[in-house]
Amino acid sequence: MLNYGNLTWTAVEEAAKADPKPRIILPVGSIEQHGPHLPLNTDSIIAEHVAVAVSDKLSSILFPTLSVGFSLEHTGFPGTISFTAQTFSSMIIEIVEHLYVSGFKKIIIINGHGGNRAILDSTITTIKHTHPDIQLYAFTIIDVAKERYNELRKSSQQMIGHADELETSMMLVIRPELVEMGRTLSEKPTFPPNVSLESDDLARVTYAWKTKQVTQSGIIGSPNLATREMGRILLDYVIETISRIVENG
Amino acid sequence: MLNYGNLTWTAVEEAAKADPKPRIILPVGSIEQHGPHLPLNTDSIIAEHVAVAVSDKLSSILFPTLSVGFSLEHTGFPGTISFTAQTFSSMIIEIVEHLYVSGFKKIIIINGHGGNRAILDSTITTIKHTHPDIQLYAFTIIDVAKERYNELRKSSQQMIGHADELETSMMLVIRPELVEMGRTLSEKPTFPPNVSLESDDLARVTYAWKTKQVTQSGIIGSPNLATREMGRILLDYVIETISRIVENG
Amino acid sequence: MLNYGNLTWTAVEEAAKADPKPRIILPVGSIEQHGPHLPLNTDSIIAEHVAVAVSDKLSSILFPTLSVGFSLEHTGFPGTISFTAQTFSSMIIEIVEHLYVSGFKKIIIINGHGGNRAILDSTITTIKHTHPDIQLYAFTIIDVAKERYNELRKSSQQMIGHADELETSMMLVIRPELVEMGRTLSEKPTFPPNVSLESDDLARVTYAWKTKQVTQSGIIGSPNLATREMGRILLDYVIETISRIVENG
Amino acid sequence: MLNYGNLTWTAVEEAAKADPKPRIILPVGSIEQHGPHLPLNTDSIIAEHVAVAVSDKLSSILFPTLSVGFSLEHTGFPGTISFTAQTFSSMIIEIVEHLYVSGFKKIIIINGHGGNRAILDSTITTIKHTHPDIQLYAFTIIDVAKERYNELRKSSQQMIGHADELETSMMLVIRPELVEMGRTLSEKPTFPPNVSLESDDLARVTYAWKTKQVTQSGIIGSPNLATREMGRILLDYVIETISRIVENG
Amino acid sequence: MLNYGNLTWTAVEEAAKADPKPRIILPVGSIEQHGPHLPLNTDSIIAEHVAVAVSDKLSSILFPTLSVGFSLEHTGFPGTISFTAQTFSSMIIEIVEHLYVSGFKKIIIINGHGGNRAILDSTITTIKHTHPDIQLYAFTIIDVAKERYNELRKSSQQMIGHADELETSMMLVIRPELVEMGRTLSEKPTFPPNVSLESDDLARVTYAWKTKQVTQSGIIGSPNLATREMGRILLDYVIETISRIVENG
Amino acid sequence: MLNYGNLTWTAVEEAAKADPKPRIILPVGSIEQHGPHLPLNTDSIIAEHVAVAVSDKLSSILFPTLSVGFSLEHTGFPGTISFTAQTFSSMIIEIVEHLYVSGFKKIIIINGHGGNRAILDSTITTIKHTHPDIQLYAFTIIDVAKERYNELRKSSQQMIGHADELETSMMLVIRPELVEMGRTLSEKPTFPPNVSLESDDLARVTYAWKTKQVTQSGIIGSPNLATREMGRILLDYVIETISRIVENG
Fold first, then answer.
1. Tens digit of pLDDT for each residue in F57-79?
2. Is E47 within 8 Å of E26 (Cβ atoms)?
3. Taking the complete model, does pTM exceed 0.90, yes or no?
4. Per the CB < 8 Å rule, is B128 touching A72?
5. Which residues of F fall within a CB distance of 8 Å from A6?
6. Residue F196, SS3?
7. 3 state SS of F115
8. How far apart are CA D79 and CA E101, in angstroms?
9. Over the stretch A156-201, which tens digit does the pLDDT of each residue have?
């Protein structure tokens, strides 16, 4: 693995001439409330952890983590920072544009925050329209983990969660000193369209929500059920899966 | 059902004072290539058809269909029209803003084009941040139909399709005279990361693609297997499901 | 006449190769208050009606109507929806850009709302600067009709009107069931610079105004004098005139 | 007349407290080709001349002339400078916004360039929407002069002109040393839709055009017929008319 | 010296073909409070005066002064007008872009307002990125004068000033009738980080400030010490220095 | 020192209620060519190092480093990444806006890249205009170090440098393993206006330049003269100076 920021321009020039050219791994996270027990940068920590491991496996180049994302659904809880959709999208476009000019055409975004997914999706479509010869992947960690997580979880199955069993388990592996397990609790809000988190309807509709309106703690789910063991299994699974998909590409 | 455009301003004023206030149903489609057998406005036709039926069921107010969406992934095929992400998002924000000022706080977007989903998702989050007392739903028809479709389809199961068995079946119900069944064929492209359409990996990663690069015809799937019967079942299912979810909300 | 949305991409491809290439007719309207007697989408209905007829006469391709325009002067009356100038202009630019890429270089905008005229004018200048080989026309229906209308009208002559004898007469032809003639009345506001509607000064100055500040009903003019007969004469005249000008072009 | 730029902030403060508050006169011009015989800043010179005189008559405050406008239709001729529509509109909005905050609510724009008219029109509508208590007038000099000009002109009547009998006559009064009468000539282009300049159709349609495509010299009209006498009559008429309309307001 | 606005397009064409091509001198000022004794347009007057003299010395072409700049730090005092950073930057980019297209590649910005400096700096970097063959200089008059001013001034040395000994002295030369010496006074605010104006720390940090918060009069410095003699020396020095640097370029 | 990202939202809430409220330290760097001997993220590394130390000294809260800045002057060398001025400015505005909403009103930006300075300066002025009660400081490390550096340096004095004695010395302290001293060399370009780096004129003019046009290596200066000792002295000085200024504020 090479660290993009630690390279000289001459090293970048060489790398971009290699055959095959190395992939660029771009971790994207968020700074947003993650309940009373997890740090604001939980998504960035997880994204960076996975990105480092994937970069290692694939001998790729790791770009510095973009630590702030699109988190307007978590405002109202102190600490949450968010770019607008337009600023966040422009950031991605401009970074990829310069990588492209430097000679890199395979960019793998590893995203730790579900709320970033939509903007990443529309943004990579926009970039692809301009540069049809680019390869752009956007992995959102929860999407990669979901099937395996649903097999393992102790909490009831649900589509969506935040600061929950999954994220807390992963953090117990990566940065256990930042997890205040004593402050975990379980919140299962009913979402605006009167749909409980267990309902299959959650796959059928998107609705605008704010954690501040549906939770007290900022938690959606049951982080109290988190274990380091599950965290390790899921992180391994996510890292393996991303590496496998990208390697085949 | 009331047709928003056909109301006078005095009728809008009355409607906005009703208890409960009527919901606004906003159909969103696209103008983009749909293979050699379906019209450019397939997504708009389906979205409008569903929106009319839902408006009827829920005694809601139907807003005029936004017929152009975000379709950059289909450029290269003549006829495709697309707004940029920013213009499309601004359109939604500005329409909802004026509806809000007129007194409407429950807005149901019914979207016929998968490529619009991401922008709608981030846009409704942005609006909710400004107006926390608004209720915004975004239904993408393929998401609503998926589970039921997977039970019924004759084509092999896949995450994604375009101008396929699903859309063609629905069009055979709504506008059969616009479907050229004789020109249907089956295309199953392999997507950039070497993932076949049958792979579960399709749920784990988003990648930038262009139909022009992976298909000859613009079709992804097997529209040749479409039937009017399936179209009817799925449209009924979609209309029922959206109405049920919204009604509970 | 061909309906753009109803074409397949292969049909668009063929059309764009024809000699001469068909023109694209793009109707643009508004959703805004039109007094207590006319529907919000009056401008869209009239623009679409004219556009259909012109498309027929000229064997052109009819694009779907853009039903929302720039209507900030009518806010304050419930129901009015407006894009910002920038969003509305971007919509036009992006649609025309994709039509141009698809091979169409003659675009005829048929506009039903006076308030859109200014943005259309500056926008087509911007597009022409980018693509000097494009032909872009913007017809605003009131401008086309004016001379003939002034010969026929029973109301006193005036520069500007809204939901007036002209629009009401046309609607009595196109959608009589949407006209509540019993609610018509006559309002002749004095505009901010103390200029009555009969004054020639109305051709010499533009001033910012809001219907909400100068009318009770939203009407400017005398829709009570409208007749179906005048509507038919004027619609015929508008359709003939646009067709003649475009055909010579 | 007071010159806005020459005031101290304490003088502005006093002026904004006067009863009635003085009006602000804002001249807007352009830097664009004006044929081989008139300078690039013809529109700015004429607008400023009229604005000074109107400010004097009405004891108003004269704002510095905005010398660059929206002139994309004249690019291709060296020397033409143009803002984009968005930049030009933002300039007007931001200037008026600060004038409003300083206490001024009557703003009179005196515009020397026909190509600016459309943007000024939509921009003042936008400002009025934000600040309903503002009074905004936009005078375009050709519109004010037209009727009188048509009575006096030696050239054949036409809707539109550029660097023509009207502008040249006015310049012969204001800055005769900048007029190269020996280089005047007469050009009467046929416009894209095959409409001659004498046709009434010019009032019925707007079409995108570039002077570079329809003229050799950049002239549209007959500046060779210009006289200082007509310039004086028309300038007096324009100044009187604007002053009269504003004074009544 | 040629005055850009006074040229015909044919004269611009010739000038752009000359060898060497003439430079374009672009004066930029501001409309903002300058204490109780100096006019709002002080910066524009000084910038234009210097620009005229430099244009004369270098046989350059003088562009019309941009009289409004970026002055948000002076809002709160009546009369201050400011563009946003984005509008101001776009104005510069668009003007230079059209000059470039007309054939001019050496552009000298002469800026009279310290608050414009930052935007000019980032803007010329942006333009240079697009057009590497352009030569763009941005002189801010206070920067050019500083060393010489510090030798001559009677006021205590300081990094920053506004409506101070320097500007007042220059205005006593250029437009003495606009200087109300009887209203001058001396204000030496302590800036937010408790740094006096004499401190060397002023070169080490930038902090956001508003004159309204740190002064009563809008003055920062000692304009009461201004003399016409110093104004003349400094203006001569500035004009000589700019001309010398540009001439060598 | 607290690490912003590592806090829970409840900890942020408490911190924002403390008296006095802690300051937020925001490090800003760049990813750009730094010659053949220093890594792309040199500016980010130095900014973060200083920010950590200042946060420690002042018991402040350290925000995650923004690792990409505005570096268009270094494009052409592979590896350089740059946001546009608008995106970079929006990022700062949006982060500060959310910090402000969370209760923090003292924000200290520590910037490692000279090319970011201009945008930071205009951006904090914009923010201050919106929130007059905020305290915003922007330190650019070269500005803080300059006087002391000029006393110590072995290279000839110059205004500007890049990947030079200063930056290389600092990197020898912070990340010596990333410095390839064997590849250092000395380049002293003459800048576009024929001004050598030793000239005092460098303080009198800003001109647009690109390192690609004036250097071979990307170096401006003499990094071969760098020493770890000087790096330590200067870093200590910078950290002390920033802390002292902020503490007094």
1. 999 999 999 999 999 999 999 99
2. no
3. yes
4. yes
5. 39-41, 178
6. coil
7. helix
8. 9
9. 876 679 999 999 999 999 999 999 999 999 998 877 666 666 678 8
